[in-house]
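Quality-control log, excerpt.
Job 1 of 2 completed; input and output follow.
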Amino acid sequence: MVSWSNRRKALTVLLFTGPTIIGILLFNIYPILLSVYTSFTNRNRFRPNPDCSVFLTGVLDPLCWPQFRTSAPVGLGQPYRLQDPIYANYANLIGNLFTPEALGAMAAIALCFVPLIAASFVNRRLNQMLEPPVSPRLVWLGALVLGFILATAVNVAQAYDTLMRTGDFVVVVFRTLLFVIARVPFSFLLGLTFALILNSDNLPGRTIFRVLLFVPWAASSLAILMALIWQFFFREQGTINQVLAFFGLSGFAWLRDPVSAFLIVVLVDTWFSYPFFMIVILGALQSVPRDVYEAAELDGASWWQQLTRITLPLIRPAVLPATVLTSITAFQMFGTVWAITQGGPINEVGRPGATEFVIVYAYKQIFQTQNYGNATAFAVILFIFLFTATLYSLRLTRITKGAYES
């Protein structure tokens, strides 16, 4: 039999942990279950009411509960039900991703990156040699040339077009990843450059420059307002086109061209984000011992060798977490792109715009088209994708190594 003392301990633990467990179940687990269930239904603006005769709908949807039954909205169509087939929303999003044509297109695109991956492994081995037979720069150059040849041979443009016509999910996630890949390295390089300049002892007025370079990050708290100012710069009658007209040059519809609109969003968000990298790198640089650089100079190391062999490896523990956080922020970016382009320009009806990233797409699905079933299916697929990517990044970077070791 269980003694009273053990029961008392269990009751005490339950009383202390009970509010937290209830909060997790109510505010975390329940919304996840409701979203997953909604993703298999045809719920939208015309069918907002639940069919409470269905068991799962009556249990999960609050509108079926007696307390909220009077708050049910009035819909034009019948109550929402499970899709037929049940995976229709997922099939609509993923589209033809797993057809032979799409898989072949993915393989063709992946083939173009094989030389770069191979160059990374080769250079890792070369860096372990005292006198490498080949320069790492030559290896990267050869990999780029080979990648370009492969891209031409497999017709990567046609493969990209085939992949982009598989479904909305592929289009939106690919463009978001492309935005992250463009924005994060630019933010890092800009932050590293300014941090190296500000870390110099011979720079007069360092305090003033630190404040001025920190302004964009402070302005990011008003990102939408600041983004509207940037939008005014690139309008057809905006500042840049007026300056071009002053010199007798014709203006350009910056925000109506897919490529220029994408690059403008990257530029503006890089301007917002580089101070974060700058502050992190500057703090890491000030913790690097000066005698390490003095010993390197005595050995005849150049500035580039000191940067690549000393500075970057020593600041890596600080830069890696900042890179992960910045990548997460970039992936869920909404305010800047919504203020500048609202996800456009749209070149084809029924297709995502050139800057319609994942959060913008989800926002449009929920608040504009009110296609709740499609939006929750998109959220479920995105959760699985991000969860897998997060586990891989943690394994690759070992960012949490030692955090739970005793």
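Job 2 of 2 completed; input and output follow.
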Amino acid sequence: MSRLPFYLIVGLLMVLGIGTSLHRHYQMEVPWTPGEQRQVWEVEAIVDFTALGDPARVELALPSHQRGYRILTENTASPGYGLSFLQDETGRRAQWSIRSATGSQQLYYSVRLLVTDDQRKRQIVRPPLRDISWERPYDTAAAQVIERAWMRSADPYTFTRELIRDFSDDLQGENARLLLTQFERTPLLVRLLNQAGVHAREVSGLLLEDGRRRQTLTSWIMVFEDEENWALFDPRTAEQGQPDNLLLWEAGGRAVLEVQGGTNSRVTFSMLSRSQPAAAAVRSQLADDTLLNFSIHSLPLEEQALFQTILLIPIGALVVVFLRILVGIKTSGTFMPVLIALAFIQTTLPTGLIGFLLVVSVGLVIRNYLSYLNLLLVARVSAVIITVIAIISIFSVLSYRVGLNAGLTITFFPMIILAWTIERMSILWEEEGPKQVLIQGGGSLITAVLAYLAMNNPWIRHITFNFLGVQLIIMALILLLGNYTGYRLLELRRFKPVTED
């Protein structure tokens, strides 16, 4: 029979598991390690204006996901106002409205931004060229400034740099000084660029500095080389490129703040930088599940805590499969060690080992007595279950009375599994003797301890909980191990006499 379908299934599981895990790491920025820290900026915008007693409407431009920053959460505070979030080709805006307002008004908007390594440029629609008209003598001055910069340039970017430098204090000529007496620097540069056939617009950005209060937006020039590629220029220094601490707040060419029904409006910004665990920083993103971003973070916290333990079981199963198939360790029950390892996670390893040995030892003594009664299997196992419950109860009460609160965690042991373990060991004792009981009991305990060490590792707990694709990888590994038919490591000792000869 061809093994090709088998290997295709294993390969498909591997590819899906690795692919989904890499997608969550690079697209959703879920960290590989549990202790990784991420920088988060908290920015608060305060809108102040004086209402005139009439209906008022306020629109504020909002930031979007962009190079270096990803929005985590947004909040507003506007008592008595209606609030809507609008989206169009120019960007996102918040709109507050009220039927009647009088006097000083304050509206608050806050956003939490995660600093990311994503350096992809945001897709922005190129603005059309505007028809530019000048009054005399500004038309002549504008034409001469454009011609002078055009001769020293080769493309839209170099032309923009040369044009801005002509308006710097050191190189400023008579034509530039004349234009600056009538126009603001940034809108003037945009008009000159449009007149020269260069697509450009004025955008507003916020320079992030930790602990700063009552900051205002700064103006930048966005120049388009073609329909997809653009670059930012500082209108004061002609430097090209977006600084790492610049957050583009409004990039659609519209006013940052528009107020109807009020006067003396302004918006100021306060900001604060924090470091927090990366998993907590991206938790709000993980709650928005899609087909490729399938996770359990959208569940209530109680269910998340439950699944955090359940998702460790495949790790224990992989340890059992490896030890039984490749190493050759014998265990009492196939996956009984995994359940015991889960109990060790709840009880801690020393307490769990002592409790397990006590319960099994006393249970074997009582089961030995029950064997003389010649009971049927169902009745005998039921009696062992009741006995295990009684033993656990007595040990818990005694440990509490003597002040050993750790002994109370013995109740986490799976009682049915313990009962079947005692029953199986007792039958094995009667049929093959105490040596096999020690071999299988010791193998079960060793396997449980190794499974506990693997399942209780902080890195493994983090990976299994945040990357569900790992479950597919574990499935593929188990299928590969199940295909092994060679010698086990513990069986190789049979060939020791051959090596001696």
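Post-run check on job 2. The first strand starts at residue 37 and ends at 52.
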